[in-house]
Design brief:
The protein has 802 residues and is α/β, with parallel strands linked by helices. The chain contains 28 helices and 20 strands. Strands 3, 4, 5, 6, 7, 8, 9, 10 and 11 form a nine-stranded parallel β-sheet that branches.
């Protein structure tokens, strides 16, 4: 020790003689650098599988001897009853806590295990974790004491994270008279070795230190440095707990002095300075009673697991604070409470590295795009339940406020700034959405527009296998999501005429990429519609269809677009964009156009004289950073060509999508993310794209109302026949007629206006036809037919034609 310095961390030197207030200020600044204003916690249930333990720690009341007539283990039914209560209360974590290998000490444990058909506590634990995971969806986090590498690996298949408190690396605490005497599993070298093995096994791991049991400050520092060294080697330590000893009756240390608040604050600050800005550092709030908000000032960013259902079985004398009190205490320290999963965001988002394949679907089902816990139970396609907005009353984050000001002034936000807006929660979320709505009023006024149109999906047969698409099917897949069809042109024409008679001014033609379609197929569709109803606007053919059509005819994209214009095509939908980032596209649509190819087709269309929309399909495997890149690419294209009329966020509907069914995607975006997508699009695209559309098909009436208050100004089309979202599982119907559109707009105090596809005015007689339209007649879905040899041109993953 030199001049009182015992350690040096990323936050500077940790000195025994450093003033506490100076130390805490440095630690809090370091924490803010890594975590901003987010203070996380996990909503959990506590499952004490057994309270038998072979160790005799002098401060522990969790460990209990066998009781005559009582099973030493919770039964499967008891475990599931606790888990189901947690599920009902909205928990995401099942914390399994148990003593170290009680069967090595107690005959009662051995006999109970044998009666249940198990040879060890760990084998029973593995089955109980799997049962909770599979029957309730809760994510197991396991504190099972000292384990072998093989036991940890087996538990990795049924849990998302594991934990073992290091407590201390002082061997003298294990000697006679010390708190760990006759506790073989508290040997520091044994515990450090298990933490090291967890790193080699890529297990997200929780550890920490217990203060006030006789260790010195220097020994605490040494323990924290040991943890830091293991984490530097493997990157697996997801959180470090600084826990204060509490004296408990009927223990050897019942009369031992407890560490005071200053001692706890000093140790937390030291942990932050040693472990750096990114580490998640936790201190249990229930062990500091009413003073728990003070812990924030020392540098913690997490409260740990707090249960609305079960007590803290390790510290039963210290009840959890209610969530409302936790939120208030957090806000009083200037921070925003955010629920997380038992696995922290960084480890939830890198599932390929940190999780067993069996656990990934369960994490995705519980996570939002940032890797925190979903903050609602809603998914796109179903009715939005009543929402209660809980806002802390904190001032808006100055960083968020500055980004919003820059956007409203027309600045070109960079990726980091846009991603920061997508991270907004609580008061920052409301500020972003309210600012976007003010900008919408400034640019577009209080008029909400819509178009009366009809979707005509001419075939659901597709040669592509996009993971997000529940609409497309192979031409032989009779039993999958309905029968395949391939419409006769006569049926396309009939639907077009009916749409015109019902006040429609646009038909939107899109379909699967049929392996037998050529560019002539698309040209013939456009010609037929133009001939049948000359005044109908033809909005048709995604960039993928354009690229495929051009390739089949041996034409460049520009040549083919010119021919489509001559055939009567008016505008193109900017669909098939999904996420314009090849990192995502390689997973959800690997055989479709790349990002650059999509941008090239759309940019070429603009140069030919077409306008297009632009879309984003979000909420599956993507992250806010992918969304930011997508918006920047759309903005850059618009600055080059000026050809985009509107931006259309399309929330992913997961229910029937292949990656949803297989558990390879999230359950769509949360509603917070939906609001932000519309709001951030308004801000990030300001001065480039004026119209932001919201999708009633995905969001329903209440959902679009909220988005119209968050920057959107357009309700899109009445659709008449919506097929694609309905195939994915949405429940919001196939048509929202003009009467319903206008009623919804009036409900939020705005002014409805039917528009043309190009945002022009509509004649009054056409508007009147739409307001009094008859019901649609039944559709005819023409089954696939054999084509003449000269019509057949099978597509074998055609190369993109530049």
């Amino acid at each position: 020790m030199v001049n009182g310095m015992v350690a040096r961390g990323e936050g500077g030197a940790v000195r025994l003689d450093m003033p506490l207030d100076m130390m805490m200020t440095a630690a809090a600044a370091l924490r803010d650098r890594g975590h901003g204003r987010v203070q996380s916690w996990s909503r959990k249930v506590f499952i004490p599988l057994t309270q038998l333990c072979r160790n005799l720690c002098h401060y522990c009341t969790f460990s209990q001897p066998p009781r005559l007539g009582e099973s030493p283990y919770l039964s499967r039914e008891e475990v599931l009853a606790i888990a189901r209560a947690g599920q009902k209360a909205g928990c995401t974590e099942a914390l399994f806590t148990l003593g170290d290998k009680p069967e090595l000490r107690f005959a009662a444990a051995r006999e109970a295990l044998a009666a249940m058909g198990y040879d060890s506590t760990l084998s029973y634990l593995i089955d109980m974790c799997a049962a909770v995971r599979d029957e309730t969806g809760l994510l197991p986090h396991v504190n099972a004491g000292i384990m072998t590498r093989e036991e940890m690996a087996a538990l990795r298949t049924v849990s998302v994270s594991q934990g073992l408190m290091l407590e201390s690396i002082s061997e003298r605490l294990c000697r006679k008279g010390g708190p760990h005497y006759r506790s073989p599993d508290k040997d520091p070298t044994v515990r450090l070795e298990m933490i090291r093995m967890a790193g080699e096994l890529a297990i997200p791991f929780t550890t920490g230190i217990l203060i006030g049991i006789g260790e010195t400050r220097a020994e605490r520092i040494a323990a924290l440095e040991a943890i830091a060294g293991l984490h530097a080697r493997h990157g697996h330590i997801q959180e470090v707990i600084v826990q204060n000893f509490r004296a408990k009756p009927r223990t050897v240390m019942a009369n031992a002095p407890e560490p005071d608040m200053d001692e706890l604050l000093w140790t937390i600050a030291a942990a932050r300075l040693i472990l750096g800005p990114q580490m998640n550092i936790q201190a249990p709030p229930n062990l500091s009673a009413a003073g728990f908000p003070r812990l924030i000032a020392a540098g913690i960013n997490d409260w740990g697991g707090v249960s609305p259902v079960t007590p803290d079985h390790v510290n039963p004398e210290a009840p959890w604070p209610e969530v409302a009190r936790l939120r208030e205490g957090t806000a009083s320290a200037g921070r925003i409470l955010v629920a997380r999963l038992p696995v922290y965001p960084a480890y939830a988002q890198e599932n390929g590295r940190w999780q067993d394949r069996a656990m990934v679907p369960h994490i995705l089902a519980a996570a939002d795009a940032a890797g925190f816990a979903r903050d609602d139970a809603w998914s796109p396609g179903v009715a939005l339940p009543p929402r209660e907005t809980v806002v802390s009353g904190l001032p808006v984050d100055p960083h968020i406020a500055a980004i919003v000001r820059d956007a409203m002034a027309g600045g070109a936000l960079d990726e980091n700034a846009i991603a920061a807006l997508f991270s907004a929660r609580d008061v920052d979320l409301e500020h972003v959405c309210d600012s976007a709505d003010r900008l919408r009023r400034q640019v577009m006024g209080d008029t909400i527009t819509y178009v009366v149109n009809r979707n005509i999906n001419y075939t659901n047969i597709c040669a592509y296998k996009c993971g997000f698409c529940a609409f497309s099917k192979g031409d032989k897949a009779e039993a999958l999501r309905g029968k395949p069809y391939d419409l006769d042109i006569a049926e396309v024409v009939r639907r077009t005429r009916e749409a015109w008679d019902r006040g429609g001014t646009e038909v939107c033609l899109q379909g699967g990429i049929h392996p037998h379609y050529t560019g002539e197929t698309y040209l013939n569709l456009a010609r037929a519609v133009r001939a049948a109803v000359p005044d109908m606007h033809i909005h048709a053919f995604s960039p993928l269809e354009v690229a495929q059509g051009a390739a089949t005819l041996g034409l460049g994209v520009e040549q083919f677009l010119v021919r489509l214009k001559e055939a009567g095509l008016d505008t193109l939908p900017g669909t098939a964009a999904e996420i314009l980032d090849d990192e995502v596209r390689a997973i959800i649509c690997p055989d479709k156009l790349t990002t650059d190819q999509w941008l090239d087709v759309v940019g070429t269309a603009h140069r030919v004289g077409f306008t297009t929309t632009a879309t984003i399909m979000f909420g599956h495997i993507d992250t806010p950073r992918h969304w930011a890149r997508h918006l920047i690419r759309i903005r850059d294209l618009q600055e080059q060509t000026g050809g985009i009329t509107e931006f259309v966020p399309l929330p992913f509907v997961h229910m029937e999508a292949p990656i949803g069914v297989r558990g390879q995607a999230r359950r769509g975006p949360t509603f917070r993310e939906v609001r932000l997508m519309h709001a951030v699009a308004r801000l990030a695209l300001h001065g480039r794209i004026h119209s932001i559309q919201t999708s009633w098909v995905k969001l329903g009436a209440e959902g679009v109302k909220a988005c119209l208050r968050s920057g959107a100004n357009d309700l899109g089309g009445t659709l008449m026949n919506e097929s694609i979202s309905r195939a994915a599982g949405t429940q919001h119907g196939q048509e929202m007629p003009p009467v319903a559109m206008e009623a919804l707009i009036h409900e939020i105090g705005r002014i409805p206006r039917q528009r043309s596809t190009a945002y022009g005015a509509i004649a009054e007689d056409i508007h009147a036809r739409g307001m009094t339209a008859a019901a649609l007649t039944p559709m005819v879905l023409t089954p696939p037919r054999k084509r003449r040899a000269n019509e057949v041109r099978t597509m074998e993953r055609l190369e993109y034609a530049e």
